[in-house]
């Protein structure tokens, strides 16, 4: 009587099941560790440019890439704030495994300064691997109330500025047969809603430019990706959680998507709830229905204002 009298099948099962569980757990642990390692090594030593590094998303990106060992080039409109951000990053990291960020003054709204800024970006390391376009100027107003100067400023900030930078760095990427341009664009690059005429126009324009460019530079080993999101909630405001609109995404969510997109080289990513996604499909397949819904929305908002 005892262990020797047990059914051999049961004995085998008792021994095999724990082994299978341990092996499976070990496999998933290793898989997770490899993926984590790949996400870090994919940016380690890479020259990464981030435009508008002073925004919520820019700062989050800068932190992740800096800790990952990237050679960062941070761009922004304020030299003092850029220096402050660089100090924060260096104080919070191990200097033996990170590189001190390089800083470049860059204002897409000032087209006269663009040539010098592009040259400075290229001079930092002599080349670059990844360029993240993260700048955006927003305006919400009826079309007839916007001046032509405002329209032009939006086009400079959201379209002419970014494409000038892209065209400036492309020869370097093409000659090295490598590089990744990543445009963080609004969902309004895919769909137009009322009271965003100038903003949506600039976002449609920059989306079209990068879509065309993607096909042109593929043969040279240069990747082009676009990430379209609804809107990025400001994580800096303490009350943002209670006031956060539905459908917003946080800077860390977009940063995680940027890392994934750089790894898997997806050409287009849409970060949005199901309703905005349905609106994009409706615009493509049922345009008259989409236009009717948009017009009804404007009438309803006008009626509520008059009450």
TrEMBL record:
Name the SUPFAM superfamilies for this protein. NAD(P)-binding Rossmann-fold domains
State one Pfam family annotation.
adh_short
Sequence intervals crossing the membrane: 12-38
Q: Give the signal sequence positions.
A: none
What is the similarity comment for this entry? Belongs to the short-chain dehydrogenases/reductases (SDR) family.
User: To which species is this protein native?
Assistant: Xiphophorus couchianus
Q: What is this protein called?
A: Dehydrogenase/reductase (SDR family) member 7C
Keyword Cytoplasm part of the UniProt annotation: no
Q: Which GO terms describe its molecular function?
A: oxidoreductase activity, acting on the CH-OH group of donors, NAD or NADP as acceptor
CDD domains for the chain: 11beta-HSD1_like_SDR_c
Instruction: Tell me which UniProt keywords the record has, alphabetically.
Output: Membrane, NAD, NADP, Oxidoreductase, Signal, Transmembrane, Transmembrane helix
Does this entry carry the keyword Transferase? no
Example GO biological process: intracellular calcium ion homeostasis
Query: Which PROSITE patterns has this protein been placed in?
Result: ADH_SHORT
């Amino acid at each position: 009587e005892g262990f020797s009298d047990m059914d051999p099948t049961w004995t085998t099962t008792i021994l095999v099941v724990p082994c299978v569980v341990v092996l499976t757990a070990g496999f998933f642990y290793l898989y997770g560790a490899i993926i984590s390692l790949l996400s870090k090594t994919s940016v380690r030593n890479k020259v990464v440019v981030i435009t508008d590094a002073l925004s919520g998303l820019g700062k989050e990106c800068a932190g992740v890439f800096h800790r990952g060992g990237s050679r960062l080039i941070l761009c922004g409109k304020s030299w003092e704030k850029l220096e402050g951000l660089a100090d924060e990053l260096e104080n919070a990291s191990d200097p033996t495994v990170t590189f001190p960020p390089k800083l470049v003054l860059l204002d897409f709204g000032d087209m006269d300064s663009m040539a010098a800024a592009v040259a400075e970006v290229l001079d930092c390391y002599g080349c670059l691997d990844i360029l993240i376009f993260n700048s955006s100027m927003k305006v919400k107003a009826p079309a007839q109330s916007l001046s032509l100067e405002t329209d032009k400023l939006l086009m400079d900030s959201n379209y002419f500025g970014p494409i000038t930078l892209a065209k400036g760095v492309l020869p370097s990427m093409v000659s090295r047969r490598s590089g990744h341009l990543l445009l963080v664009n609004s969902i309004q690059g895919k769909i137009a809603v009322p009271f965003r005429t100038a903003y949506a126009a600039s976002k449609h324009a920059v989306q079209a430019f990068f879509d065309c460019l993607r096909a042109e530079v593929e043969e040279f080993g240069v990747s082009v990706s676009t990430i379209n999101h609804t809107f990025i909630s400001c994580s800096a405001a303490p009350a943002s959680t209670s006031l956060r609109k539905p459908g917003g995404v946080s800077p860390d969510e977009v940063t995680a998507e940027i890392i994934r997109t750089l790894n898997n080289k997806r050409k287009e990513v849409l970060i949005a709830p199901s309703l905005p996604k349905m609106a994009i499909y409706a615009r493509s397949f049922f345009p008259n229905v989409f236009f009717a819904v948009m017009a009804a929305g404007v009438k309803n908002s006008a009626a509520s204002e008059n009450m």
